[in-house]
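Teaching soon. Got one?

===
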Amino acid sequence: MLSSSVRLLPPLPALWKKMHLDMSLLQILAVLLLPGAWGQGSSSRPGVVVEAKNITLPAGSKAVLPCHSPRMVWTRDGLKDRQRVVHWDLFRNSPEYSVERILDMSPGARQRVYNGLNKGRVSIPESAFNDGNFSLVINNVVATDKGVYTCNLHHHYCQIHQSIQIQLNVTKSAKKEKRYWDGEKTVFVVLLGSSVALPCVNRRPLWREGLQEDQQQVAHWDFQPPGVRPDKADRLVDLYASGERRDYGPLFASKMSVAEDAFTVGDFSLTISDLRPVDKGLYSCHLHHHYCGLQERRIFRLTVGPPLPSAPTKAPEILPHDEPEPRTEEVETPHVVTVILPEHRGYFVQHLGYFLATFLLLAFIAVAVIVLTRRRKKRGQEYELRRSDRGNVISGGEMSLDCTELKTCNQEPLNSEPECLIQSADYKNNLLKERGMAKECNTDFDGKLWK
């Protein structure tokens, strides 16, 4: 196991304040829920209280105190080196926003450079996972190297992800070379054609070669009876990821148990059978993962109540004078229930279709009658117009002829007046005959038209 003398780099101030505040809130919650929790919190390396519960169960029953942690899952596949990965990415803003993977590396494999132009020019130290130095070295800097670089550290087994940003600018003047902080990230201004190392250093033991994982995961249960100080709590069991298990005292061996595959599924729940009043008190589950820096604690206050009443086992006695009356079997007559089922939906649709068809037929007939009536009226009007035009033409011709005849007669000498009168009389007779013939033609035409 790692010794406690390993020095860790302090985290960022904001992150440290947030973690400290979260730990304080959890401790306050534990004090409010469980009065004896503060005493345990003051012990050496108590861990963070992530759960606190009050459980009350009747005597004689079985209690299960849950303690689950998916991060405390031990794998024996020997692939822990592949769980740690570092990769560098480049973000460019011009000419278009783009993201490019520069390289990545894991302890079990060689570093992989993605762009063929960067092979032999871009690299990180081979001893990165031994000393925690993941700095990116760029030789012969070119103008296209300009952008924001991110160093990403991933530990999938411990579920830890870190990212560091560095901005690289390229200049052609040696006087403009400098390094400064812009409020969010470090900015490097380097000379074109020179070499630069973008720093990414993490000295935490998590990122270095350490001891085997099975020697760094430990889980144990403690029991604190009422009136006992936290530092005098009884140790019930110690569990190691290697499979070793240490029981303390006859109390655990007789009525308590933890699953054999606790480190495989992350379930360290404590099962207590045949509860008795002496079992009440505070139970705490401590989870330690020294490799990942995990320190968690769960506290349960167990209260044992009175036992449940037992169910009656003897049949009730029947006294002689309390014999039940003989049952008379009655034959029930069948009940006839009339059920009126609603008509099917298709029946309604069919009748609706009939109604619509009838309505459309009547509408068609009405439209036809209206159209024929209008045509009849229009023909009558046209006939009246023609008839009036013919009458006007005949009367106009007669008047013109009369006037002509009168003029010719007036122009002749006085001695020829009897002849003129005779001619005018003959002409009038001819006009009367023509008018009579026109009336007969109109009568015949009217009759044929109406037929």
In short: The longest helix spans residues 345-411. The chain has seven helices and 19 strands.
